[in-house]
Amino acid sequence: MSMRSELVQEWLATTKWANWKRTPLAGDASARRYERIFGPDDQSVILMDAPLKTCGRQFRFVEIAAHLSNLSLAAPEILAWNEPDGLMMLTDLGQADFATHLRASPDDETKLYASAVDVLKTLQTSPPPSGLTRMTPDIGTEMIDLAFEWAAKDHSRDLKADITTKIHALLAEVDPNPSALSLRDFHAENLIWRSKETGVNRVGLLDFQDAFITHPTYDLASLLRDARRDVSSDLLIPLISQLAGNKHDASKFKRAFHVMAIQRNLRILGIFNKLAKQDRKITYLDLIPRVWVHLQTDLADAGLSDLALLIERAFSPVEK
Distance between CA atoms of 28 and 183, rounded to whole angstroms? Predict the structure, then answer.
């Protein structure tokens, strides 16, 4: 047993969940680890194991969870928090994420994704918490440095400068002063379908500790340009219109969606290559072809043929 496992076990021994059955859950791209812990009468809770050295402090998770709950959204309640050791016990929002539910019931896709957009609309009715990172054009451009560091096949400084200049200009065009809260990893494996609930409470929210401030379409780009599952292209226009509502111009929202998706997937291209090459998590290479298709789709739909040519010169879809 590792020292970390011993620490977790020692902490659990001091809680009311000491004798409950522990079941590891599939991990994400971070160093966080999760377990579902089962007790009597079908009770269950979620253990988050987030070592401070690799995951940092979790105060943002607590803050965002409270903010979401205040908006009547379904965020986990913090039942116990061992802050020095990076351990937290959370309520269990359910076992069927969108991806799992849709494998069994693919005809529910429109219903689930429309419900997710209702969550985004609710999220954007209130000012976000203070102190969060704001994805200005400068920050958004810096965020794609990972792609050049880990996924580039052509390391020309001029080529990088041409791409980053164009990305910066696009971000400045669609949102020079971002103000919307984004949960950031808003996709099918982080959304729990709670069919017995009603309204926005049907969608359980996970993995929002990296929330930041950006354009309102950023989370929609995360949802529809999912690296792990193919989402029907027929959903794009209706969901953009649903999110835009009467407050925003749908055509401008569509343009912003494509720009956010391009920026996001360039960064993901770098993250997945880094995870495969540095951390030897080679399964992430299997996801890169879908990310590459998303990039090509959004570049084409936005009419950015010049940028598309530069990106094709700079990056390789998969490099094992």
Answer: 15
